[in-house]
Design goal:
By secondary structure, the protein is mostly helical. It has six helices and no strands.
């Protein structure tokens, strides 16, 4: 995969800093933990959206944004960031699209992150 495309999905700068500081193997352990928690995170987002619980959706998106960012999942973090801001003027018509990007790409992005780190171990 081209580096430019990978840079849209992963926060390569942060990942390189983490790998230098703590090592790819240690970071990979955090990614595996995130992988275990991701179905719950995404499930909470989907449930809040289905139930039209805007405040809960924004709160869950904020948590997910932090978790995704902490392991270098750039695209997921960016869409969770958009989703958490329920006061934004484009939120009413866009939040379902943003959530769909997270749902559709979460597992693929996570697999790319794991492959990236496994290549560095």
């Amino acid at each position: 995969m081209a580096t430019a495309e990978l840079e849209n999905i992963l926060d390569l700068n942060t990942l390189e800093q983490y790998c230098s500081a703590i090592g790819a193997g240690t970071l990979l352990k955090s990614v595996v933990l995130f992988e275990q928690l991701m179905p719950e995170y995404v499930g909470n987002l989907v449930a809040a959206s289905k139930n039209a619980e805007k405040e809960v959706l924004c709160s869950e998106a904020h948590k997910f944004k932090g978790a995704a960012g902490s392991v270098g999942l750039k695209r997921i973090q960016q869409y969770a960031q958009l989703l958490q801001h329920g006061e934004a003027s484009d939120w009413p018509e866009m939040h379902a699209i943003w959530l769909n990007v997270i749902v559709e790409n979460g597992e693929k992005d996570l697999a790319m992150l794991k492959a990236y780190l496994e290549a560095k171990v």
